[in-house]
Amino acid sequence: MTVDEISSVADRPGAAVSVRRAPATGRPQLSMTARRHRAFYMFTSPWIIGFVLLTITPMVYALWLSFTTFDGISPNWKYVGLGNYRELLNDPVTWDALGRAGLFAVTSVPLSIIAGLGLAVLVNRPVKARGLFRTLLYLPAVVPPVGAGLAFKFLFDQNSGATNGALTFFGIDAVPWLADPYARYVLLMTVLWGAGNIMIISLAGLQDVPRELHEAARIDGASAWRTFRSITVPLLSPVLLFQTVTGVIASVQTIMPLLLAPLGDTGGITTVPQSNYLYMMHVFAQYFALGRYGYASALLWVLFVLILVVTGLIFKFTSGAVFYNVDPEAKK
User: Fold this and answer.
1) What CA–CA distance (Å, rounded) separates 116 from 118?
2) Quick one: three-class SS letters along 225-241?
3) What is residue 31's predicted lDDT score, i.e. its pLDDT?
4) d(CA 252, CA 254)
5) What angle do CA 307, 313, 314 make, to 5 degrees?
6) Are 65 and 294 in contact (CB under 8 A)?
């Protein structure tokens, strides 16, 4: 049908024009929802691929190793089922190391949170050059853990460390800081050294607290401590919960005692003081000193399950003490 014919038909009263559409060619048009889903998976694909290859795959491989006697080299290994798990349940060294790790977490996490929150309160005040103070206090958190560990090792060395040098200058005998029972205190110092990271997170939480509430408390005659305890801390409770959970997870996985150990070597691993022989140090020794990949993998999986349980308990027992501006369980 030509254009003239279409026009003549359209001019007739009551006439209906039917035009046949050409068949669509090329790829089908995606809906807006499909485009959003495609964009989401395209942007998150690097993380998803990395998570599968670098996290899920090693975990599954470690789970398989935990049922074997594989030593990393010899092909003569065998499947032992739950033998490694039964052995670790009856191993007193494992339980002692786990107990030290738990004690270290119970001690270091509250100290780190208190130190970070205290620094955040100080640098949140309207003082001159507070940006400079924030930078200087945060710089230690930027230092890599290996560098910080080596720095503390050299600082507290019994023979050539600066700490004992200062004590000797004042007539005090040198202290074996990197041996029992002082090594645990040096380890706590390394944790507090990185409190700037907690300071930044706490500072962000402090700046999110509405000023109107503080002004209302001052008008009602509340003291600074009462305002901090009754207003600031409850509003910071989600931040404190986050720092507690991540702090516990990080503390039980610490392996910094290896760098803080005194000089010496046993089976290819630097000697560690007994007080600093934590759970991850025990795992490290099983892997690289004894070559017991199966047993060490079982230790790691037990630690993974314990972390899940402890995290769940923390969320359960703090559910009534955490205040959210928006209900986290509210349906959108």
Assistant:
1) 5
2) HHHHHHHHHHHHHHHHH
3) 83
4) 6
5) 90
6) yes
Residue 12 has what pLDDT? 53
DSSP string for 20-43 = PPPPP-SSPPPPHHHHHHHHHHHH
Mean pLDDT in order along the chain per 10 residues (332 residues):
48 49 59 86 93 93 92 84 91 92 92 92 85 87 81 83 88 85 86 88 89 85 86 89 92 75 49 84 87 92 94 89 67 49
Residue matched to tokens 């919960």: 241
Full 3-state SS string of 59-122? HHHHHHHCCECCCCCCCCCCECCCHHHHHHHCCHHHHHHHHHHHHHHHHHHHHHHHHHHHHHHH
Nearest to 260 by CA among 107, 148, 175, 122: 148
- For 194, counting Cβ atoms within 10 Å of its Cβ (0-12 exposed, 13-18 middle, 19+ buried), the class is buried
Residue 266 forms beta bridges with which residues?
269
Residue listed under structure tokens 């998570």: 51
Measured between alpha carbons, how far is 115 from 193 in angstroms, rounded to an integer?
A: 10
Q: Report the C-alpha gap between 125 and 252 in whole angstroms.
A: 34
The pLDDT score that the predictor gives to residue 19 is 46
CA dist 141 and 224 (Å) reads 29
Residue 17 is predicted with a pLDDT of 46
Q: Would you state the structure tokens that stand for residue 17, as one six-digit string?
A: 């024009």
Q: Is 304 helix (H, G, I), strand (E, B) or coil?
A: helix
